[in-house]
Amino acid sequence: MTDVAIAAPNEAAADAGERVARAGGNAVDAALAAALVTMVNEVGLVSLSSGGFVTVQPPGDETPYTVDGWMDMPGRAGDVPLGSGTWDISTEYGGGVDITIGPGSVATHGSLAAFGETHERWGRLPWRALVEPALQVARDGFRLSSASRYYLEYSHLDVFGWDEASHAAVHDADGEIATGLIVVPDLAEALELIAADGPSAMYDGELGRLIGADVLGRGGLLGPADLAAYRPVVRPSLATVVGDWTLATTPPPSLGGVCVAAMLRLLDGRPHGAWTDDDVAHLVRVQRAVLGHRLDVFDASVDLAADARAFLDLVDADHLAVLESGSTAHVSATDSDGGACSVTVSSGYSSGMIAAGTGIWLNNCLGEQELNPRGLHGLAPGTRLLSNMAPTVGRHTDGSALAIGSPGADRITTAVAQVLAGFVGGMPLQEAVHHPRVHVHRAGRADEVVKTETDLSMYFGGVAAALRHPDGHLVASADPRRDGAVRLVRAGD
């Protein structure tokens, strides 16, 4: 049995990671099992209809890889009018956001396909063992996490009120947000199919057919052909050296990894120990440069990989030139073999729709306006959407291994970069996670706002990190901004 450290968004997810670790699983098994539980009990933040990325550092000196399970543009059916089946709402969540919901906002999900690919390459236990904890949570019922409840306070009627099944699942008899155990009809049966048939159940299997037929039937674009055609993509991770750490994160088409890598390189080793006022001022300059470049260049790029390489080359060549120019869940796990696994998944803000006969809330990632700069249905079918995600792993010259990441929309990159900079600069891992954060919103625009955290808030992300020291000692750190939970599983306990 391998020692495993897990950091997860809630107690039930952490329990799942512990359960599979005690059954002989490694960091990959534990992280995937924990993430599957979040797809059941982090309502409004993530579901089985989610997209995500998994970054893995295999034991030894092997190359780290990222498995891309992010959302595709649907529409292969070809006979649905573009722009149909959607409507816009405004909510005060996260300081105010405009989102598009409805059947036409549902993108082609990819998380389960990525999980299957990751498990096949680096997992140890049978697939069913990873799904069983989520199946049990769905069957026995769950209470809303504080993060879910916080989001639902803003959205429970506008987003989750228009679909009858969705409304019934999250509201009590008086129409208030449910406080008791929630059992979503058909969800346990869906997970039983996923446990028995594997991830394919969500694509060319029964669940994929049910989801596609229901979305098309309600005027959306996603059909069975889109799901059957979906494939995860495995790429070498994007590497950045910071001090004695080699950090590996998501390459394009995720924008998150590029932004994290650029921020870390521009921070240039800051802070040295505790953050100083001068360090924070420099951090704001770094965020303004990187996030401003994203808005100016990356969001409209026709060749993101080339534009990302060019930007990182400029960062490496001339820091000064760059600095002077203009809803989600995360699990991290490491193990005593030296493996690390970082998983970030999201369903957007939710379309508000449960697919008939499945119990599965469907995503609204076509309706996340910041991820679709070309418009609601502006991409060709099969094209990957943009993403802020940046699940990251690291390897130190002394053999230490790290897994880290965060939810938080466009705050993902700033949260991960700040915690990594603090940790690599000498802060203990939990202190680096706990430290107040800064985020430059609308960088470089006339309405730019530098948001400085005074009281801990989930707006600034929810970092989860797990660390293996060179002597095999494991540490896990969860973010107090969310219902974070950690588990340390030692062989022989």
UniProtKB/TrEMBL annotation:
GO terms for molecular function: hydrolase activity; transferase activity. It comes from the Bacteria. Keywords: Hydrolase, Transferase, Zymogen. It holds the Pfam family G_glu_transpept. Transmembrane segments: none annotated. The keyword Transferase applies. The keyword Lipid metabolism does not apply. InterPro entries: GGT_bact, GGT_ssub_C, Ntn_hydrolases_N. PANTHER family: GLUTATHIONE HYDROLASE, GLUTATHIONE HYDROLASE PROENZYME. Belongs to the gamma-glutamyltransferase family. This is Gamma-glutamyltransferase. The lineage of its organism: Bacteria, Bacillati, Actinomycetota, Actinomycetes, Propionibacteriales.
